[in-house]
Specification:
alpha/beta, D-Maltodextrin-Binding Protein, domain 2, 3 domains, 10-stranded mixed sheet
Length: about 450
């Protein structure tokens, strides 16, 4: 059970609405559940269930049969004026039970959107749709949103040829407005299968009232003067990745020998008594109450803490010179989708800066559309009306969201983004877990 399951958001002291808490933390937490709550066993079981043995082919190498997703195939597809969109809970703009962006999309295209929130965990959702895909049947969804950081279901959907290659000719907004952060994924070159929905960073949070002049380095997590006051994450991918960064190694291209070196350094950090505990989402509460003064942190949590109360104004986010981890939830079209052309139109719609500005004002994750920042600061037409209507619900000035580097990353953030290691086999995952799981145990 995760930290948020047992209670609601803490009482706000000023203008921040609970919906901001929902947008910043709960969806993110649910997408971390596989490793933070069930650990290595569930992850290994997932890969075993996928039938992965030995070295698997790189993600994206198995295309659907029968020419599905080719230019010729796409040219034969027709609009059906309906689309079934499956997403994570609390991950889209909401006002009076409706979604302003979807309402506008339907008004301008005539396409009705059946928007549902059946995804609370990548593994569980993959298990839900896998039988239909294996039986060559419609899953009931034309768009699904899956996370890229591994071990994950997204890579296996690509490997099995269970995603439809996107119609590149319909990605007009995407090609014009998409951030380079979401157009250079090594696991999906050229965005053949995916278009980002939202993203986030894992960096370092610290208490500036205690740590006056912190180094811009992950080395701060290994500094003995903060012994017993350092928070590390129990998520094995986050833990191992920061260990690699501390050695100057890019996690995405690391080797098993690199993992062993990182594990040795993290074990020494633990043995030296530097780490107070290995936390799940609860790390933010311990950073707030002073149990820790520096910790691995998810970018949205620090932003939320700052805007929710002046009490937490001393909490800051530091971007390490070695880099910070970057995760993304991605829209894709499962094989046998009945309304693929309608799906393409909706996916590309969210790369319109006006639509993205409304979505981001509600969500506050990392936007895949940099131009949405100016659209939020200077909205026009329907977006201006939507933002104005959403203001009482969100309770924040649009300028505060627009100028947050955790929503619209600065050049420094863009430069320091790092991808996770893309596990290609059950053996690789087992090797990673064997090294890093013992570090989190016995604390």
């Amino acid at each position: 059970m995760n930290e948020q399951d047992g209670h609601g958001p803490e009482q706000r002291e000023d203008h921040a609405d609970p919906s901001l808490w929902r947008g910043l933390t709960q969806p993110r937490l649910s997408r971390r559940q596989m490793l933070t709550t069930t650990g290595a066993g569930a992850a290994a079981a997932f890969l075993a269930a996928c039938g992965v043995k030995g070295t698997a082919a790189p993600a994206g190498t198995s295309a659907p049969a029968g020419g599905v997703g080719t230019a010729a195939w796409w040219s034969k597809q027709q609009l059906h004026h309906k689309v079934n969109f499956a997403n994570w809970p609390l991950y889209i703009d909401v006002l009076n039970g409706k979604h302003p962006t979807l309402e506008h999309f339907t008004q301008t295209t005539g396409i009705q959107v059946n928007y549902t929130e059946p995804i609370s965990d990548n593994v569980a959702f993959y298990a839900k749709i896998r039988p239909s895909l294996a039986a060559k049947q419609y899953t009931g969804f034309d768009i699904i949103v899956m996370t890229d950081n591994t071990p994950n279901a997204l890579g296996y959907l690509m490997q099995n040829g269970w995603l439809i290659p996107l119609d590149q000719s319909m990605m007009t907004n995407f090609r014009k407005y998409a951030s380079k952060l979401v157009t250079t994924f090594p696991w999906d070159p050229g965005n053949k299968y995916t278009m980002a929905w939202q993203s986030g960073f894992t960096a370092i949070g610290y208490n500036s009232s205690v740590i006056k002049n912190p180094p811009s380095s992950v080395d701060i997590l290994f500094d003995k003067k903060y012994a017993g006051k350092i928070g590390m994450m129990s998520d094995l991918q986050e833990l191992g990745s920061v260990g690699l960064l501390s050695l100057g190694i890019d996690p995405a291209t690391s080797s098993e020998s690199d993992w062993a070196k990182a594990a040795k350094k993290l074990q020494q950090q633990k043995s030296d008594g530097l780490v107070r505990a290995y936390y799940d989402q609860s790390y933010i509460g311990h950073l707030k109450n002073g149990d820790t003064v520096v910790s691995q942190a998810w970018s949205g949590d620090i932003f939320q803490a700052n805007v929710s109360s002046s009490k937490y104004a001393d909490l800051k986010l530091m971007v390490p010179e070695q880099g910070m981890m970057f995760w993304t939830d991605n829209m894709c079209i499962p094989l046998y989708a009945q309304n693929p052309k309608d799906a393409m139109m909706l996916m590309d719609y969210y790369y319109d800066p006006q639509a993205q500005s409304v979505l981001e004002y509600y969500n506050d994750y990392v936007s895949p559309v940099p131009s949405a920042q100016q659209a939020m600061l200077h909205p026009t037409g329907w977006a201006a009306s939507a933002l104005k209507a959403l203001h009482p619900e969100i309770g924040l000035p649009t300028s505060l969201v627009a100028n947050a580097p955790t929503v619209f990353p600065t050049a420094t953030y863009l430069k320091q983004a790092r991808n996770y290691f893309p596990f290609k086999s059950q053996e690789e995952l087992a090797a990673w877990n064997k090294l890093f799981l013992p570090i989190t145990q016995g604390t």
